[in-house]
Amino acid sequence: MAQTRKVESAEKLMKYIDDFIKYCEENGEIPSNYNLCKFLSVSAATLSRYEAGEGNYRGYEIPFKNLRQYREHRLLTMLEGDSKKAAAAIFQLKQPFNGGYVESTQQVDQGATVTLKIEGVGGVDAFK
Prior knowledge:
Layout: H1 10-27, H2 33-40, H3 44-52, H4 61-81, H5 86-93
Helix pairs in contact: 1-4, 4-5
């Protein structure tokens, strides 16, 4: 595992994330935020601040776009390579940090018809 690091810049974070991707590929690790925290030796709160890219961490969100693309590519490769893993890959692709895909449903507006029978309820006068 990596030593404790201080990430001084977005460029440094980009290098660390590239190293993290390489580490995951070489060791068969899942490129999750949990593993990224371990790799960078940072807390989940610090990782969230990096990802938000606010204040002192302006620009730090950009390397996470590359990581998101890598995660998406990895899952799409799983879909093509092993049909048994397809359901898990699809579920993971729906998570915001893996692409955030949303299944869209098509709605066909065919209208609706409502028929009211007013016999026995006071006739037409009941609806005034």
